[in-house]
Amino acid sequence: MSEERVLCTFRVAEHLLGLDISVIQEVLRQQEITRLPLAAPAVRGVINLRGRIVPALDLRRCLDLPVAEGGRHDANIVAREREDAPVSLLVDEIGDVVTVPLELCEGAPETMRAAARELIRGVFPVHDRLLLELDLGKVLRVAYA
Amino acid sequence: MGVMDEGILREFLAESLEGLGQVERDLVALERDPGDVAKIGGVFRVFHTIKGTCGFFGFTKLAAVTHAGESLLSRLRGGERALSPEIVNALLALVDTVRAILGRIESSKEEGEGNFARLIQRLNRLEEEGATEAPPAATEPPPAPTAAGAATEPPAPEADTAVIPRDGGLFGPLIASGRLDPEAVAIAAQQQRLGDPRRLGEILVDHGALQPQDILDALLVRSEMAASTLAESSIRVDVHLLDLLMNLVGELVLARNQLLQNVASQDHADLPGTVQRLNHITTELQERIMKTRMQPIGNVCNKLPRLVRDIASACGKQVRLELEGVDTELDRTIIEAIRDPLTHLIRNAIDHGIETTEARVANGKSPEGLLVVRAFHEGGKVHLEVEDDGAGLSLESIRERALRQNLIPADRAARMTERDWYNVIFLPGFTTAARVTNVSGRGVGMDVVKTNVERIGGAIDVDSRPGHGTTMRIRIPLTLAIVPALVISVDGERYAIPQVNLIELVRVERAEASTRLVTAYDVPVLRYRERLLPLLDLRAILGTAPTPARADGPEGDAISIVVLHADGLTVGLVVDTIEASQEIVVKPLGEPLRQIPVFAGATILGDGAVALILDVPGLARHARISRSDGEIEESAPAENVDRGAMDRQTLVVCTVGPRWTVAIPQTQIARLEEFRRADVERSGDRAIIQYRGGLLPLVSLGALLDLGGTHAATDIEWIGDADPLRVVVHEREGRAVGLIVEAVVEIVEERVAPGGGDASTGFAGAVVVRGSVTELIDLEGLLRQADVHRHSALAASAEGGAR
Predict the structure, then answer these.
(1) CA distance linking residue A90 with residue A92, whole number of Å
(2) In which domain, by residue range, is A89 found?
(3) CB contact A56 to B (< 8 Å)
């Protein structure tokens, strides 16, 4: 039996992205974001997660994609690299949880921008599309840079 | 180790550390008053208990050292052996060693590899020797130290116990670990007594008995011990208090159920009552929870006697420590935060402040320096003072060094007052120490102390009288978790400003904007109380719309300016709207966001939205307003200052409920009265009282404000059960009404900026009373709106008839 990876998928612009299920804390509908002036451009602001102040990161910015029209996002994925530091990632649409065999893993497509390719941990063909798995640690470092 | 054993071990460690703290204080006290048998008994019992428990856990080394101490103490207790400085030193070394072993047990559950034979030997020797010596009186020369067996020691030159040099407790662990021979210490001590001005450590290094690195290590170990975590990670809470909290939580659940029920049944008639109850429960719960976190400042001060003793002997000085107000309570987070600054101040006071014994005697002072650490509550803050009776700060030397180090531009220096000069010591990079000593002067200066104090919302300043001493004053808030703040907004975004930074609110009408807002040195400034105040435009700083503040700045009929003080600098912050003054719960921004200098954290407002908390010093730094810009205030007095905008008014400050303070202009108050609860009569559902031959309707001011002034506020149910009732009597056109307040706090004279409020709601605006924003009540508007006067028509006619 080959090794598998379970990913929580979501859509940002035209990309199908995924994060390892183990780093996902919860998925929320659109939250009210308080703008955080003077922060890095990818930091859209902070949200109130049951009394906790959690930064909201714009994945489009991180991936060097055009900013969404109207600045609207449909969902927040609350993920955490460390137990005590959750972040909210703003995505366009929540997808399914999929299981992918590791042996199908490929490198990031050449067509992606270099900045974005850095953040990809692996690429898996799912149905007729490519699912890009993000490396949360790298995404956070880019976002706060 | 089983779970149960683990629990017992933690308890043992916590209790032992607590006991050792007490032992340390008692030993230092015993050194002054060796005759206190009760204290010796207490010290004995602590070691006895530790030794006894060691058997249970099988800590044989710890048992052995504490046993040696215990037997020495039993001799002392029986009066067979007199307490000498030598013994105190050995016992303090024992305390350090035991503490070090406990620390090791805490981290690794093992006692470690250390060999304590030398310490045990030292304790045993002290126990056997000199059993015949009489206990010395405090004024007599102490018995000669005998550790080295040196019989030829001359008596100390001064007939005072404190002249005998001590090892500062520093060498105890070194001796205990076998790195230092106790005899070498005794020889060095003797050499010091014979007139060698150097410190023990220097002499020892010179003799080759000790490597300089060892001393540094020992210093490190000692500071780590001071930061021992175990004792601080748990606090004691009164069971009674805990029961009260549980009870309140029960009430909270009931109130929530009631609220859910109200909402579910669409029955909103009970809603105000339920909300009121919820309000009271929450307030009380908050206060009680705060109370559990309040700890006496003694928890820090308890460690000071030993610290002072050690530093003093390391500096070769005589210092007496006096502690005042050790039961002053403050939040434990603050206690933690002030530990380092306080230690630093004390270190400085002894090392640099208090003179050497010879210098003191030469100046006609007592040979012993006095260090007073004082804590007290005043104005809702905790004040901490460290006062020494040393030489005081030298104005000349500060001035000379500051100019040489280019800390202050020469043109500015010419205008500085004496007090300004003293506060120069808080500038980064400043040091007055002529030489770097072991104790202080290593470049970690007063600026760090200042930064640390300001980080917790405190302030520090210094006062000094040449030849008479120096006083450092720290003012810190009671808690960090919940702070009073002012909520303001720009472009619809709300921000909170801590009230510690707030001086006042200024409203500049559009009509006078052109005369009061000017540009000086390319910085927009406000003519403000005969000075020019540099202005920061919050909108520009936060990037909502990048336009600088100018006379033709924001739209609207008036400009709201929040006058803030931070880092010795006063600035005006231009905002759109001043929303409300409220207590906020400070929440940290996550680690990566903490680097943004202008925010101190975030809070969640009543509607669930997040508001960022502005960090005023960071804001000023970000906007590159430095102290030198602040100079404009001093150097360019404004002409034609608009005094009319800031009228002084006499205000009566009252509380109307827990944590709610309001101010009422004295002109609106006819009299302040107290009535007995029993004298209140009922008229329908209203409360009235016979007063000056008439009837006075009574209204609860709190209810009136709370409910936005509905007629129900006149209801007798709101009167509450206070006895006596404190009443503010308001009269207009022969009609009187009594407003019940909780207490009249004080009567102050404050500057009141006109406008800023909405007369129709009864709020005339906000005023700063003793540094915190207080709502200014317009009784006339409030009563008109509540239509209380109509209800008081009956009373008015009755009163009129009586005249």
Answers:
(1) 7
(2) 4-143
(3) no
Using a CB–CB cut-off of 8 Å, the residues of B that contact A are 493, 541-544, 587-593, 596-599, 601-602, 604, 608-612, 622
Coil vs helix vs strand at B90: helix
Cα–Cα dist B136/B87, whole Å: 13
- Could you tell me which of B700, B722, B731 has the C-alpha nearest to residue B713? B700
Mean pLDDT of chain B: 74
- Residues of chain A under the 50 pLDDT cut: none
Kindly report, residue by residue over B522-542, the tens digit of the pLDDT.
567 787 776 778 888 888 888
Three-state DSSP class for residue A27 = strand
Closest CA of chain A from B597, distance in Å: 9
Stretch B310-331: mean pLDDT, rounded? 84
Q: Cβ–Cβ of B610/A47 closer than 8 Å? A: yes
The CA distance from B609 to the nearest CA of chain A, in Å, is 7
Residues of A in contact with B493 (CB under 8 A): 34-35
ipTM: 0.86
Condensed to tens digits (0 to 9), the pLDDT of residues B214-264 reads 665 565 555 444 444 444 566 777 788 888 899 999 999 998 898 888 888
* Gap between the Cα atoms of B10 and B18, Å rounded: 12
pLDDT band at residue B276 under the 50/70/90 scheme: confident
d(CA B330, CA B376): 10
Closest residue to A53, CB basis, from B493, B542, B602: B602
Is A52–B587 a contact, with Cβ atoms under 8 angstroms apart? yes
Q: For residue A39, give the nearest of B587, B588, B593 by CB distance.
A: B593
What is the tens place of the pLDDT at every residue in B101-160?
888 888 777 777 777 788 888 888 888 775 444 443 333 333 333 333 333 333 333 333
Q: How many CA atoms lie within 13 A of B210 on its CB side?
A: 28
Q: Given an 8 Å threshold on Cβ–Cβ distance, is A55 in contact with B602?
A: no
Q: How confident is the model at residue B30 (pLDDT cuts 50, 70, 90)?
A: confident
Question: Using an 8 Å Cβ cutoff, are B658 and B280 in contact?
Answer: yes
Q: What percent of chain B has pLDDT over 90?
A: 3
Pairing of strands A52-58, A86-91: parallel
Whether the link from the prior residue into B724 is cis, omega within 30° of 0, is yes
Q: What is the pLDDT of residue B429?
A: 67
Residue B670 contacts by C-beta under 8 Å, 6 or more apart in sequence?
B729, B730, B731, B736
Q: What are phi and psi of B392, to 5 degrees?
A: 80, 170
Q: What is the pLDDT of residues B159-211, one digit of tens each?
A: 333 323 344 455 655 655 556 666 676 677 667 666 666 666 667 777 766 66
Mutate to test the interface with A, among B536, B591, B593 (most CBs of A within 10 A): B593
Q: Is the pTM of this model over 0.90?
A: no
CA–CA separation, A89 vs A33, rounded Å?
Answer: 12
Phi and psi based region of residue B735 (left: phi greater than 0; alpha: psi -120 to 50; beta: remaining): beta
Name the domain count of chain A: 1
Helix (H) or strand (E) holding A71: none
Task: Show residues of chain B in contact with A85, CB under 8 Å.
Answer: 590-591
Measured between beta carbons, the chain B residues lying within 8 angstroms of A51 are 587, 604
Q: What number of other Cβ atoms are within 10 A of residue B143's Cβ?
A: 18
Strand-pairing partners, residue A82, are: none
What number is the average pLDDT over the span B292-309? 81
| Contact between residue B751 and residue B637 where contact means Cβ atoms under 8 Å apart | no
Q: How far is A21 from chain B (nearest CA, A)?
A: 22
Q: Do B592 and A38 touch (CB under 8 A)?
A: no
Q: Which residues in chain A touch residue B612, judged by CB atoms under 8 angstroms apart?
A: 34, 36, 46
CATH number of the domain that residue A111 is part of: 2.40.50.180
Q: Output the pLDDT for position B487.
A: 93
Residue of A nearest to B540 (CA): A37
